[in-house]
Amino acid sequence: MGFSVPILLAAASSAVSAVGAIAAGESQRQTAYAQARQSELQAKSEALRYRQQGVEVMNKTLATAATIRARAAAGSVDPFGGSALALTQYAFGKGLEEKMMTEDNATLSLLGGEINATEMRRQGDAAAQAGYIKAFGTLLSAGSQIGQIGGPPGLGSSSLNLSSNSAYTLKRGSYYG
Question: pLDDT tens, 144-163?
Fold first, then answer.
């Protein structure tokens, strides 16, 4: 009970195509996951830059407040009251506002990176799933083609005969009565 060469070639070709489709899908998934990781790292780097800007803003704010107080004291004005106090409070208010903006930007950067990474992973998973579906379709198509070529000698179509004259007689290519 041997298989013919065309059947074996069709089966082998389909198996190789199916394995290739799965491998391609998995490769796309790995690429997408690597890109997702890169997106997360880039977002973290960007968030660190925003936080560093926030630190610089606070340093400049402190320097501005120190300058206001030093000039007030040099001019024989109370550095902790009156106009000097108002200017210092204004500088701190603006500095804090800018610092909060850099924190918001850092948070948005991280969220954006996370959203991009999640989408890339979804695309990778979809590519892998498409590879499996393509492989399954290839194998189904091959089965259909092999069925059209014909199976091993001696096998015909099998079915049950449920006529009233015979009690569930199995037919194999021809009627056994």
Answer: 877 776 655 544 444 444 44
Residue 147 contacts residue 11 (beta carbons within 8 Å): no
- Residue 32 is encoded by which pair of tokens? 């997408």
d(CA 6, CA 150): 10
Q: Distance between CA atoms of 131 and 145, rounded to whole angstroms?
A: 21
Count the helix, strand and coil residues of the chain and give each as a percent rounded to the nearest 5: 80, 5, 15
What is the distance in angstroms between the CA of the first residue and the CA of the last residue of the chain? 26
Residue pointed to by tokens 């690429």: 31
For residues 147 and 149, what is the distance between their CA atoms, to the nearest angstrom? 5
Structure token digits, residue 102: 């850099």
How many Å is the maximal CA-CA distance in the chain? 125
Task: Identify the segments of the chain with pLDDT beneath 50.
Answer: 1, 154-177
User: What pTM did the predictor assign?
Assistant: 0.66
Query: Phi then psi for 152, rounded to 5 degrees?
Result: -65, 155
From CA 70, how far away is CA 90, in angstroms rounded? 16
Q: Are 120 and 41 in contact (CB under 8 A)?
A: no
pLDDT of residue 31: 96
